[in-house]
Design a protein that fits this description.
This protein has 332 residues and is an alpha+beta fold. It is built from twelve helices and 13 strands.
């Protein structure tokens, strides 16, 4: 038995033991080389898998051994592999998440750990027993590591099965905490005791800017400096540093200098104490509010090339507020 086969059997059993799946529901898969995949078979019980429950398939979904029958969700798995950088997929039916999905449109994180790992999780409507229209699932998985299908379950992706399992497990636990908080009427607070609720952000004019043009960057500076909450959060956390935003393809960089909670200088260089770099696609996703910048950095879509995340995290509140403001400024 191959290591990958043992891994699928192991994670299937753990999903069952964690009560993230029951009966014959759910399916797992992983890449095998460039053009093949190992996926659970039709009607395979994840908690009790054996090697005969695993089917090797080609990129067209056909089993290498013609008599074997892969999961009915094989088309969805193949579409996700084709449309994302996933190397493993966990699709299961966590009971808490399933119940939550019936009355909500998305899951909003309650804790910093959730924000850094699962982020805001979209809930997608499907009206068939299997995922027959995977386009929306793929579109969301480009920006979110896990999605919820309303009344059906979750689809999590990762570079391996452990990543996808941990995302699934964390989301189920997070929803459990959400339900518990609603039951006891708890007020959700961040670890330092400050309420999570922030003042509303005014919408910016309808003008749009070329991404990282001088006009765009100046609009970012002006909008942050005019926001009272950003200034207050900056003073409270003694925000004094410099941050470089770097676009990989163009090798273009802008550095924003912060002093005493305000932006004091904007320079067209890469001299920042901290540097975050990424492809234009992901910067566009950040500024279009498709993905949280901290989550994008955690996922490796953006990379902290200079400085340490532990140092940057002490200014989480003002930076989170700044990016929330900046995401209201339209980019072309």
């Amino acid at each position: 038995m191959s290591k990958l086969a043992r891994d699928i059997i192991y994670w299937g059993k753990l999903l069952f033991e964690r009560r993230l799946i029951s009966g014959w529901g759910g399916n797992l898969s992983s890449r095998v080389g460039k053009n093949q995949f190992l996926i659970t078979a039709q009607h395979a019980p994840l908690g009790f898998l054996t090697e005969k429950d695993l089917v090797r398939i080609n990129a067209d979904g056909k089993a290498v051994r013609k008599h074997e029958r892969a999961s009915s969700e094989t088309p969805m798995h193949l579409a996700v592999y084709a449309g994302t950088d996933a190397r493993a997929i966990v699709h299961v039916h966590p009971p808490m998440v399933l119940a939550f999905s019936l009355t909500h449109d998305s899951f909003v994180p309650m804790s910093f750990e959730e924000e850094y790992t699962v982020g805001k999780v979209p809930i997608i409507r499907q009206d068939t027993p299997t995922v027959t229209k995977p386009d929306q699932v793929i579109g969301e998985l480009k920006y979110h590591p896990i999605v919820i299908i309303k009344g059906h379950g979750t689809v999590a992706i990762g570079q391996n099965l452990q990543e996808a399992f941990l995302l699934t497990d964390l989301l189920e636990e997070s929803v459990h905490c959400h339900f518990f908080g609603e039951k006891v009427g708890a007020t959700v607070e961040v670890p330092n005791g400050a309420p999570r609720k922030q003042s509303a952000i005014s919408s910016c004019p309808s003008k749009s800017y070329a991404l990282f043009s001088r006009e765009h960057m100046q609009a970012l500076v002006d909008s942050a400096n005019q926001d009272l909450q950003f200034r207050s959060d900056g003073v409270d956390t003694d925000l004094t540093t410099s941050l470089t935003l770097f676009v990989d393809e163009a090798e273009d960089a802008w550095t924003v200098k912060f002093v005493d909670g305000a932006i004091s200088e904007l320079k067209h260089d890469d001299s920042g104490e901290f540097m975050i770099s990424g492809k234009a696609e992901w910067w566009n996703a950040v500024f279009s509010n498709r993905i949280d910048p901290f989550l994008a950095t955690q996922q490796g879509k953006l990379k902290l090339k200079r400085g340490e995340m532990a140092q940057l995290a002490r200014w989480y509140k003002p930076f989170q507020r700044a990016f929330a403001i900046w995401q209201t400024i339209a980019v072309q």
